[in-house]
Amino acid sequence: MQTVSAKWAKALTTDHGLSVKVNVLYGGAVIAEDIAFTDGSVKVDRESETRRSLSLSIADPSEFPIAPTDRFAVYGQQIYVESGLTYLDGSSERVPVGTFVITSVTGNIHTGPLTVTGAGLEILLRRALFDTATSTGTGSVAGFMDFHIKDTIPGASFVDSSTNGTNTIPSKTWDANSDKWSALSEAAASIGAELFCDANGTFRLVDVPDPDNVAIPYVWEVAAGHNGVMVSANMGLSAEGVYNRVVASGENAEDNKPPVMAEAKITDTNDPLYYGGPFGKVSKAFSSSLITSTSQAQGAATAMLRNAKASNRTVSLESVPNPALEAGDRIRVVYGDAHLPEIHIVNSFDVPLGISGGFSIATVSGKAED
In this structure, are residues 95 and 52 in contact, taking their beta carbons and an 8 Å threshold? Predict the structure, then answer.
C-alpha cells in the first residue's frame, strides 16, 4: 500500500469525504489542471499487461478534441489522477492512482457526455518494436530492462526490488520489429518476477507475490461489522486456469548452454490440489532461452506455481474505497461470525473517482491465519 498518514486508516472506518484531482499533460508539461469531470474509475489488475486503466466522463461536449494538441486528443496526451480523502477538519490527503496515456474519446458531440479512456504507461512499451535486431548484451536482467524502458520512454523511472534482478542476463537476440514489451516480460518471468508501472508512474521489477510467506505483514484490514470497512464478501472456488505443477525449461545456443529443466509441484497431501491426488496431474510449461541453469529454472517454476495455484481460491469484496491500495498487497479479511479471518493477496480492484462508485476488490489465495 502507498505511504499515507496515520489519519488515513482511521478515517476509512468513520465519516470522510472524497478528494480527487485530475490533470492533463502533453509533452511532459501540465496543460490543464484540476479539470472538471462528472464520473470515472481506475481499474488496477495484476493479470493485465497494462496494470492500470482509466475511464473518465466529461460533461461538456465542446471538449471533444479537434486539434491534435487539444487536451483530450490521442496524440500523446496523458492524464494524471490523484484520489484520496477529505477529513472532518476540512483537510485533504491524496495519493497518485496513475498516469494514463489517452487511447480514445467518444461521446455525443451535441449533448455529451464524453468518455475518455486511458492506459497505464506500459502501453508505450507495448506499442514499441525493436527498430533493429537487438541482443541482451552483457549486464544484468534489471539493467537490460532499465535501458530499454528509458530508451523508449525518455525520463522514465525504473526500480528493481526483485531478488534476482541483478543476475547476469543470458544472451538472446530479438529480430527487428519484435515486440519490446514481450521481451521485457519474458526477462522478468525468467527470474520469477513481474514488471509493471505503479501509481506514481515508476516501472517496477518485483518478485511474484508469495501467499505462503507469513513473514510479510498485511497492509490493511477489511472487516465486517461496526467500524469495519467491508460492505459484502463473495467467495469462490474454481478449477479453471489452476495448475498443480509447473515445468520451466531453457536452452541457449548463443551462450553454448545445454538444455535445463526444473519443476515445481504441490506435494503436500493435505492440500486438495496436490499433484497426483484427486485433482489430478495438471501441468503448465514455460520455456525461455533466458533460462540457462537448473537453479534459475527452479526459481521460475516456483514463482509461476504461486500464480498457477492461487486463483483456485478467490474472494470478491465490496468495501469503503481505499485508493492507496496496490495490486499484490496482502490484506486481512475479517468476515465476522460468518467465517474465520483470512490473509489474501489483492489481485485487482476498481477505484471510483465519483461518489456514486463502489470499491470492488478481487483477491486470490485466501489463507487462514496461522
Answer: no
Asked if 149 and 135 count as a contact pair (C-beta separation under 8 A), the reply is: no
Per-residue burial over 256-277, b = 16 or more CB atoms within 10 Å of its CB, e = otherwise: ebeebbbbbbbeeeeeebbbee
Q: Are 127 and 111 in contact (CB under 8 A)?
A: no
Q: How confident is the model at residue 184 (pLDDT cuts 50, 70, 90)?
A: very high
Residues paired with 312 in a beta bridge: none
| pLDDT (mean) for 318-323 | 94
The pairing of strands 257-265 and 202-207 is unpaired
Question: d(Cα 332, Cα 222) in Å, to the nearest integer?
Answer: 6
Asked whether residue 366 carries a pLDDT value surpassing 70, the answer given is: no
Whole-prediction pTM value? 0.90
The two most distant CA atoms of the chain are separated, in Å, by 67
Say whether 85 sits in a helix, a strand or coil: strand
Average pLDDT, the chain: 93
Q: Residue 105 is placed in which grid cell?
A: 474519446
R_g of the chain, CA atoms, integer Å: 22
